Structure formats: structure tokens, C-alpha cells
Amino acid sequence: MTFDLSTLFILGICYLMLLFGIALATDKGWIPQRITRHPIVYVLSLGVFASVWSYYAVTGNAFRDGFGYLAPFIGISLAFLFSPVMLRPILDITKSYQLSSLADLLAFRYRSPLAGTLTTIVMLMGVTPLLSLQIQAVASSVAILAPEASQTALAAAFCLLITLFAIFFGTGRGAGREKHEGLVMAIAFESVVKLLAMLSVGGFAIYQGFGGFAEVDQWLQAQPELLSSIKDTSTAGSLHVTVILFFTAAVASPHMFYMIFNENNDPKALTMASWALPLYFLLLSLPVMPILWAGLKAGSTAPLDFYPLTIGADYGSPLITMIGFLGGLSAASGLIIVITLALSNMCLNHLILPVYQPTARNDIYRWLLWKRRILIAALIWIGFLLYYIPDDKLSVRAIGNVSFIASLQFLPSIVALLYWPRGNKNGYMAGLLTGVLIWLLFLMLPVVTGVDLLESTNLSSREIIAISLVCNILIFVITSLWTHTSAEERASADICALDTIRRRNRTGLVARSPDEFIAKLTKPLGERTATREVLQALRDLKIDQQEKSPHSMRLLRGRLEANLSGLLGPSIAHDLIDRFLPYTIESEAGATDVDVIESRIEAYRSNLSGMAEDLDNLRRYHRQVLLELPLGVCSLGEQNQIVMWNHTMEKLTGTPGQSVLGAQLSDIGEPWASLIHDFTVGDAAHAHKRVVQVKNSRRFISLHKAIIEKSATHKIKQDGVVILLEDLTETELLEEELTHSERLASIGRLAAGVAHEIGNPITGIACLAQNIRDETDNDELRSMARQIIEQTDRTSRIVQSLVNFAHSGANKPDHTSEVVTVEECAKEAITLISLDKKRKDINYVVNCRQSLQILGDSQRLLQVMINLINNAHDASPAGSTITIASKLVSGSVQISVTDEGTGIPEEVRDRIFEPFFTTKEPGEGTGLGLSLVYSIVENLDGHIDILNASLRRENPGTRVILTFPCYDGAASAAGASPDAL
Amino acid sequence: MYITRATLLLMLFSYLLFLTSVDWLAEQDGAWYRPFIIGLLVIALAAFSHREQDSDDL
């Protein structure tokens, strides 16, 4: 059965156009995001790993190795089944630091641009032949179906379309870090096509070739040689090598690295892939044996490798042949697209950018975009040339098979990256070069040139691979142990290593705000790129552009380096950031950032179990104790870096812990920085009642400190000082109030004594004056006597006030306790005041609820009301209104006296209850009225407040509010809704 | 990343399953799809053991 080239060509073009359509529809948003971002799409896109080796070559392998053909599937599946061991940690690192390829990852881990370049070169050597293998597979499949057609023309057309697809949908806008959803969707679709094609062909083979499953078994039992060959376990050794090779390929093959880590939107998708991808490979490998047996049964003359393609023709079904062809096309195209995208990134970051970088005048994104596009085209067409140039097409396949083994040489460095922080760049490069050299001399050279250096030794390929790997590991370990590891590299090793959460703790950035970041980066990147990158990093971190805290600036620096790493590769990004945004202070090697350690432990918390979980609970308990301590706790690390800042410190200073953790002490602002710094550098372990001026108020702070000794554990090298701040302001104010009360009491006692002593002579003077007034006829003398009597009356009133004041200041409750109705008391006070006809005309309004009663002495309360109304009267202009009101507030009776007078100036408000303090003209007031009121109210268990009655600037008026406990509990329940004033 | 007990148990179980099933797989009169049954079993266990491992992200 043969086909026209035009038929195959149209079929191929239609299929590739469909891919374009899917990618375009996804990029344009025509397909809902709930579909395009579903984890299953990510899982299916990883099916790109199953290239032509799993579609065509697999039947040939099954014939030769029996069930050994499953080894590659098992290898890659194991990598996913145990993804927490290798893939998940690498995903975390690549996501955090925007690493897009294995070369990026190794250059980041070993802090060496050379390591990245070496990785890229070895990767190119190992993977480029795979491209030509895919092209050859497509061309060969066309040759089988249309023998007279030109394979080269079709292969060239295929390459052209693939180049266009990769350029349009794989390069984005050049920013380097965006996800290519269109590409992922198209690759996922290819995986579905591949799987459906394989299952269809397999189903066809079983039912058309044999007639059913039972018939397959019957036929198989009749083929004892075949049956024993498929279950032969003698080749297990080489299969183990294949398993390890494909296990490594999950990370070490550029296309898998690209799809697993670069296009991952959600870590949970990888969790799903850990079982779903092995299931995909299982389904893909399931029909292989039936297809092979059906081909053998039919006596197919086609090469064994192409049975999935020819089985349809063998049994006379053009449809199955076309399906088989499409499956092969999808397997080849997917791999070429992804592999070239991945390699183009690697070549750009590690071969081109280290020697040639865009200037700040260029549009960097555009420059990178075009370089990436050129690289993609170049790589695909190099693959085409590698397919086209050799005369012997079999050698292409042989080279492709051997070249892929090179990726195994990355296994030691990948394992060390996660599990052995001692490994260094010297060890990595020496080990890799050794392994690659053995691979080149003893595996590649015989295939390419036919010269076999080990011909006499009769070593098998499997043994040579094992030797190269062992030599690689030995040289890696020995060189790493014997050579120096830089501090920079140790820091990277700590970031990557699984068993440590240490971070180097460096502080003090040259740039102190996002604007300064932009200014510093403008020089290498240009203003537009610098601004865009800094703003992007701020958005990623959800930090405001005005933010200037050192902690945020350090985060911003880290994020910028990660983002630039996605754009320019880790080596260039690290170098650029170090050069233009350096730290001003370098900490000791090994110093740790406790805050970072804690945040990482928090992130892993649900994974902790057993003793680790108990220790974590203990840590959380101790931390909570410190955080909730009613004393301010501030712990300082080296170079006065703030390590702990508890809740009380936050309240005391008004500075949230998040903004000062990791900052220098000097960054927290005055007066706290000076207070803590002076205390820290001083010798005293305690400082009592330091006065701190915070805004308009004074605070009294006692300080205590303790030195934290260096920990015995070498991993935690944290010496510093812990400082406790005790806020004694409340205590100090109480003490001052007590002193003031004592002073008032003394004055009261003095006043009582003075009143007593003065009272008697005054009475005498008054009597004598009355005698003179009554007994003389001299008018002038009588007038003078009247004046003396008036003055003595006045003196007597003052003396009586002093006596009352002195009595009221006594602590003993000498007043009678009776029920007083507030409204009656207010009205009586107004009546009494109104008796004085000389007074100016004032309106009195009483707005009291009738039922409100308090328990107290009615005469004293009356005195309070009279004093307050008198004061209000004196301060009020003629014709104004004085309002006396009462209401129930939370079970208390609130009585207010409000006037429309001049109000009480702010500066004297604190002194108005002091005895003898008055704002009235000399001779007008004694300065004892409010003192008396204060004393009586306090004795009646009440409280007095004075405030302005309104917001008016002139004559704001005064409102005096008295609060007493309500007498009637029922009334308080009835008055749940507060009465209006 | 912290390697969970579930992952370690899965590794141990898979290894033990491999050791014990080698002879069963190699039986001449056994069904040809036996390796796939073992594969499905391991995948099902992996799906079960990974179900709660996605709560922590960095």
C-alpha cells in the first residue's frame, strides 16, 4: 500500500496548521483558562518526552530486548514517581530564582559562568543529533508510505513549519520569564494525538491482527522462542543503565527541564504529574508488544522500528496507516519545538551573553527576542543538515542513540546539587570533563569514525557508560574535597541543599529606595528596562513603590536578581546585581538570618513529623511566649541587626515588626534608635526610667539587657544582645497623681487650720464694725463700717469655703447617703442662683430625665450644681443659654452643664481643679469652687470631665460632665437606648 | 524540601515489590501484560502517597 506524497504533505500541513490554531486560540484567550491552566494540560505537555524513540524505535527495541523496551519508560517514570526526591526541590529552586535550564541551574549552584557554558556545550553535543533523528524519522516514514517521493523536500518543509511555530509561539515578547500557554497547549495536544494513535494502532493490531486478546495469547503460546526472548532477563545489566539514563534525562534533557520547570504554573501540577505521567507512559507502552506481534504475524517486510506505521498497510487499513503517520509526526514535531526552545535559551545565556551583551541604548527585550529567534532557526536547521549531509542514514540513528548518553554525565552534579553542599565548581567541571572525555573517546568516536580504541578489551557499551559515570563521580568528589570552595558558592550550595536552611545574612544596601534601584540599574540596562524590571519585581513582591525599609529593599534585590536571571541567565544577572547594587556590609561567613530560617520552617511545617514536629511545636511555643510578653523584647544580631521585635515593641514604638526585622538599629527612627543604641553600647545591664519624648508626650522607659553567647552548634552562629523595654509611663503618671493628691490634702489641712485661726478675729472685726455702724452718726464713718462688714462677710465666706474644702477632702465618707433626683437638684440650684437680682440675664434650660436618680448627699450635690452653674454664668455673655442635661450611659448617670461662654483655654485645663487657681479677675473668685466640686464628686464616687462645648473658634463654650453610678438598676435597663441631651 | 515518610515508604515498597515480582513476571506461561499490572499498582500507590504533599510552597 503506497500513498501520494501530496496526500501525506496535505495531511502533515493540516496537522501542523491545527497545532498553530490551538496555540493561537490559547494565546488569544479563546480557550478558557480553566482548561489551559488545568494540571492535566501540564501533565500531557510533559508527554513531549516520548519522542520517536517511544513511537517508532520502541517496536524494534521490544523485538531485541523483550520487556527491556520498558526500561526508558521505567526510568523516566521513576523520576516522577519519586518527584519529592529530585524534581520538586529543583522546581522550588528554579521558580524562586527564575532558572530556565540545567545550565542556568548548575551555573547558579556552582556560581560559575564557565560551568554554565560547559553544560551548554555538552548538552549541545548530546542533544543536537536527536533533532536530526526526529527529522530522519519523519522522512523515513514518508519514504515507507510514498517510496517515490522526495524525502528531503518533505523534511525541509517540515523543518520550515516547525521553525515558524517555535518562533511564533515559543519566544513570547522576549522578557524570558512569561509562560507560553499556547505552546504548552499545543504540545499537550500532540501528546494526546500520540497516545490515541498508539492505542488505536494497538487495538487494531489485537482485533484485526489476531481477533482478540485470547487469540493473542493462543498465538503467543505457539511461539515459544518469541515468548522466551521477551521474558529473557539476561540483559538486565544494560537495562539498569538505560533506567538510570532516562531517570537522569528527566532533569538532564533540555526539553524535559524546559517543560517541567519553565512552563509550570502551579507546583500542585507536578504532584499530579508524579503519578499521571507514569500512567501516560504506561498506556503509551502497553500496545507496543501487540503491534510487534501483529507485524511479525503478518510477515511485514518493513523495518521493525516502523511497525506502528506499517501495520495498517499490512492489514489493509489506510486509516490506521494515516493515524500511525500522524502519531509519528506529533512525536517528532513536539520534541523538535521544545528542544530548540530550551537550547536557544541555554545558548543565549551561556554562549552569547557572556561574550556579547546588549548596550543600555538598545531595547534589551527586543534584542534578546531576535537573538532567541535566530538561535531557534539555526538549531533546527543544524539538525536538518546533520540529517541531510551523511550518506549513511543508519549512522544518524547510531550517533543519536550514543549522543544521548552524554546527559548521564550530569547525574552526579544534579545529585550533589541537592544532597551534597560540599561539591564545588572545580569538582563539577573536572568530573564532567572526565566523564565526557571517556564518552567521546570510547563511545562516540567508534560510531562516528569507526575507530574503536578498546576493541581488544572487548568492553561493552554498558560497561563503558558505567566506567565513565564512576570516574565522573570519583573525580567530582575528590576534586571537591581537595579544592577551595568560595563563600559565594557555599551560599548557593546552602540554598540548593535539602538538609539545610541556612542563609547568608548580609545587610546594608547601597540603594535605599526603589527609585535608587532604578537609577543604579539604568547604567547597564537603560532607563526603560531598569524601570520595567524594578516595577515588575515590586509587583511580584507586592511592595509599594514608596517603601524604603531595608528588609523590603533586600527582598527587592533578591527578586530583581531572580527576574534578571530569567532574562539574561544567572551568571550575568548575579554579576550585574553585585556590581551595581552591592551590599555595604558583608557579614561573617556562616552567619544566619533567623527570620529566614523561621519563615522556611513555617513553609515546611505540615511536612514535619515525629521529633521534628515536637521541636517545631516547642519553638513555636517559645516564640509565642516572647511575642506575647507584656515587655518589649528586641533582639539584636551582629552589626546591630534587628532579629526579634515582639508585639509590645510594636505597640510601644508604633513600628510593625515586619518592617524592622533584618533592618539596622539605626533604621527604626528616633528616639528609639538612640535610646536602644546608647543602652546597648553602655556597660550597665539595667537603666531605670529613661525619659523619651514621643511626639507630644513623655514616656518613661526602663531598659534591661542580656548578652546572647555564641551557640555551641556551629550551624547557628548567632551572638547578639537581647533588650527588654519596660514602659513605666502609666506607673509614673499614677505616682505623679498621688503626689498631687498629697499636695492637695496638705493644702486642705493647712486651709482648715488657717480658716480656724482667721475665723475668730474676723468675727471680732465684724462685730466691732457693726457696733460702729449702729452707734455713730457720722455718715462717712458709717459707710466705712459698712464696707468693713462687707469685706469681713466676704472673708467669712472664703474662710467657710476653705473649711468646707478641707472637710470634703477628707477620706472618710462623712456625707449622708440618700436618693437624689438629678432634675430636682438642677432646678433647685437654678432657683437659688436666680434669687440674685444683680446677675445678668441668662436663659436656663433643664433637659433631664425625671426618673434618673443617684445615691449621695443632696446638699453637696446641690453645692456642686450651684458652683458649676455659677461658673457657667460668669463665663457666659448676657442673653446666652446654660443647659443642664442628664442621660443614662452604660448604667451611669451623666449630668452635663453646658454654657456658651469663652471656654477654657487648653493650657489651663490641667490646672483648673487646683485650689486657689482662678481665671477670674482678682477679688472675683477664690479659686476654690472647682476644687470643691472635684472633691465632692470624687467623694460621691463620681467622675468629672471638662471639654469644649462646640468646635467654634470664638466662644466655644464649656461643657462640664459629671458621671455618677445610677441608683436604680431597673432604670438603667429601661434606658438602654440613650436619651438625647 | 523535606522528603516525606510517604515518599520513603513508596520507595521501599516499590523496591520490595520489584524484588518479589521478578519471578512472577518471568513465568513462561504468565500473561504478557503482567508487568503493566505491577506498574499500575505502583502508580496507584504513588497517587495515594502524593495526595497530601502539595500544601507547602516556597
SSE arrangement:
The complex is a heterodimer of chains A (981) and B (58).
Chain A: H1 5-27, H2 33-36, H3 39-45, H4 52-55, H5 57-65, H6 71-81, H7 87-97, H8 102-109, H9 113-145, H10 151-170, H11 181-210, H12 213-221, H13 224-230, H14 236-252, H15 254-262, H16 267-285, H17 288-298, H18 307-314, H19 318-352, H20 364-388, H21 393-403, H22 411-419, H23 425-449, H24 461-482, H25 487-496, E1 507-509, H26 514-525, H27 527-541, H28 550-568, H29 570-580, E2 583-585, H30 594-603, H31 610-628, E3 632-636, E4 642-645, H32 647-653, H33 657-660, H34 672-681, E5 686-694, E6 697-708, E7 720-727, H35 729-775, H36 779-808, E8 818-821, H37 822-834, E9 843-847, E10 853-856, H38 858-875, E11 881-889, E12 892-898, H39 929-939, E13 943-948, E14 958-965, H40 969-974
Parallel strand pairs in A: 9-11
Antiparallel strand pairs in A: 1-2, 3-4, 3-7, 5-6, 6-7, 8-10, 11-12, 12-14, 13-14
Helix pairs in contact in A: 1-10, 1-11, 1-19, 3-11, 3-16, 5-17, 6-14, 6-16, 8-9, 9-10, 9-19, 9-20, 9-21, 10-19, 10-20, 11-16, 11-17, 11-18, 11-19, 14-15, 15-19, 17-18, 18-19, 19-20, 21-23, 23-24, 26-27, 27-28, 28-29, 35-36, 36-39, 37-38, 38-39
Chain B: H1 5-26, H2 34-49
Helix pairs in contact in B: 1-2
